[in-house]
Write a structure and sequence with these properties.
single chain; about 400 residues; alpha+beta; eight-stranded antiparallel beta sheet; 11 helices; 20 strands; about 30% strand; globular
Length: about 400
């Protein structure tokens, strides 16, 4: 088989939207469950199946991995190196950091040696892989990504009048470096007891005052919104430390390993290395391992202007520059003229909108809104024609 449709796992996480996926793609939701993510790929925690036969994609790949992956992917990765998703967030996801490849390998081996179950609540590493990722907005999409410049962090904590952290704020102002940012972040993340409650009380008071700046208004609005779902959570301070971002439909951003981020609200396409490793830093009721989080965080500030990716526009294709080998991502605008795409790896196409015919020398099928297809590298090339929009995952 070189071309076949996929049946994909829908993950019903509590933060997911009950309407967005069904409204955008016509995927039924008869029980009214949160439809948080559609997983397209071969990850063991949510492996796609061949629609026609019901076979697990991982089993099909194992039967002819070199032919399906291509020689480069087979020798470089030995597996499908990416996981492709639709992500629909109705309430904020946890603040997250993903480990580097090296630290994921070490952490996964260490937790295995300690006998920690893969499903244990205190498990940090679900696999030995890194998890850089890209998000492409299908609706207006709110998120946080990377540390603000230290001058903004100092100004926002002062505007919010968090006097409990006066000493730490002054130290960051006097040491606006990676070391200073790390010390300040540790101070916030380790607040506890009466001191934590006092700091949160001061933050709540700031919600009720008229903000002095537009930056303060936006950061405090984010924080106040988080409080509806995560009262007394240390992550309520995160918008004062992390860049707040809003993507318009069609915009994308990349999330590097070891960079704190959170998805807040909206629906998008997400592609990442084939991993489920998450180290949490707030806005969650789940386990937070603060020392491990700190060890896996890169304390560098990110300028807001550099966050959104500028696509390479070529005819009817948008290609997004990605600084890792694990995956590539394109948006294809399809019209009635037949287009040809040569393969360099296994690909998954997802039909964002419309109806598109996909054909190889061996077979042909029609892809409709919300459907996805797997194309084996040994097909060599494929043609696509119709009227619609495709998202293309490859490496």
């Amino acid at each position: 088989m070189s071309l076949f449709k996929l049946n994909n796992v829908i993950q019903h996480y509590p933060w997911g939207s009950k309407q967005s996926i069904s409204e955008l793609f016509g995927i039924k939701n008869p029980n009214g469950q949160p439809q948080a993510e559609i997983w397209m790929g071969a990850h063991p925690r949510g492996c796609s199946r061949v629609a026609e036969t019901g076979q697990l994609l991982s089993d099909v790949l194992s039967q002819n991995s070199k032919g399906m992956f291509g020689e480069y992917t087979q020798s470089r990765f030995g597996e499908l190196p990416y996981l492709f998703k639709v992500l629909a967030a109705e309430i904020p996801l946890s603040i997250q950091v993903h480990p580097s490849k090296k630290k994921a390998q070490l952490g996964f081996a260490r937790e295995n040696q300690l006998g920690i179950s893969l499903d244990a609540s205190n498990r940090n590493y679900k696999d030995p892989n890194h998890k850089p990722e890209l998000i492409y907005a299908l609706t207006f999409y709110k998120a946080m990504n990377g540390f603000r410049p230290t001058s903004q962090i100092v100004a926002l904590f002062r505007e919010a009048e968090i006097s409990v952290l006066y000493t730490e704020i002054l130290a960051l102002e006097n040491t606006p470096s990676s070391e200073g940012l790390k010390a300040f972040f540790i101070a916030v993340m380790t607040l506890n007891g009466e001191r934590k409650q006092l700091a949160l009380g001061q933050l709540y008071s700031a919600y009720e005052r008229r903000p002095k700046t537009a930056l303060g208004r936006e950061a405090l609005q984010y924080s106040k919104g988080f409080k509806q779902h995560y009262a007394d959570d240390i992550g309520l301070f995160s918008p004062l430390m992390l860049n707040t971002v809003e993507l318009a439909p069609g915009e994308a951003m990349f999330l590097h390993a070891e960079t704190p981020h959170a998805y807040i609200e909206g629906t998008g396409l997400e592609i990442m290395a084939n991993s489920d490793n998450v180290l949490r830093g707030g806005l969650t009721h789940k386990f937070i391992d603060v020392p491990e989080l700190i060890d896996n965080t890169r304390f560098e500030t990110t300028e807001i202007e550099s966050i959104k990716l500028k696509p390479i526009v070529k005819e009817d294709k948008l290609s997004f520059p990605i600084p890792v080998d694990d995956f590539g991502f394109d948006i294809l605008f399809v019209d009635e003229v037949s287009n040809q795409q040569y393969l360099r790896s296994a690909e998954i196409l997802f039909c964002v909108d419309g109806e598109v015919s996909i054909s190889t020398t061996e077979s042909q099928l029609v892809l409709r809104t919300g459907e996805s297809v797997f194309i084996s590298n040994d097909a060599g090339k494929y043609l696509y024609k119709g009227k619609g929009v495709l998202a293309r995952a490859y490496n």
